[in-house]
Amino acid sequence: MDKKFIIAIDGSAATGKSVLAKELAKRLNILYIDTGAMYRAAGYYFVTNNIDLTNENIEANLDKLNIDLKYNSEGTIVYLNGEDITSKIRTEEISMAASDVSKNKKIREKLVALQRKMADGESVVLEGRDITTVVFPNADLKLFLTASIEIRAIRRKRDLAKKGQEVDIEEVRKSLEKRDLQDSTREESPLKQAEDAVVIDTTSLTNDETVDMAIKLLNERI
Ligand code: DC
Fold it and tell me: Band of the pLDDT at 1, cuts 50, 70, 90?
């Protein structure tokens, strides 16, 4: 395929966005941008520096946040001010801090600009909360992923267990619900389904089935 194309994926946490985006990037040999990792890096900065997440504090520290994504054979490497923080941002604490920091308008402006710059001139798949509505509303393919809260809690618990973190499933469920509510009711770029996004409910789909569905939809569009 010569023409560059953009695949935009939004949805709540643990609906399968990352798995789908990674697999699409691999099969189509295109760039993958994990925008949640950028908000996680910002959240990590404030948590590790013990700075309360007020708008004033966030905005006073904006210029100190140098976030970058690089890639190796294992996937995305997340850098904050030159430090590789990839293994430190997938905790429940950082998930919540990312959601908290992402409410701020200025941080969103900074990260959206970075996302557009990274995608410039590339065929790319991006996933997050505002990709289909704000970052790339004219993407070639727009997907909105959903899944039942039960399966999402199971998936998140399994992901954390793989990283050596044992968590209570009820706690995981509560934290997912809290984040959903916060991400979808905030004033700035809330998570919502774009009118022209295709909804995929991944509750009873395998990863392969979801990827096949997305590729079929893409082929119909480009
Ligand atoms: O996709 P994730 O769980 O890694 O994202 C962490 C948080 O970052 C999420 O709860 C809300 C925020 N986020 C956002 O506001 N906009 C995005 N495009 C991606 C993530």
Answer: low
Closest CA to 44 of 3, 4, 100, 2: 100
What range does the domain containing 104 cover? 6-221
Q: 180 CB less than 6 Å from ligand 1? A: no
Residue 1 included in any domain: no
At residue 129, the pLDDT reads 98
Count structural domains, the chain.
1
Does the pTM surpass 0.85? The reply is yes
The pick from 20, 99, 185 for probing ligand 1's pocket by mutation, whose C-beta has the most ligand atoms within 8 angstroms, reads 99
* CATH code: domain of residue 203: 3.40.50.300
Cα distances (angstroms) measured from residue 94 to each of 2, 195, 217: 39, 31, 34
Mutate to test the pocket of ligand 1, among 10, 20, 34, 39 (most ligand atoms within 8 A of CB): 39
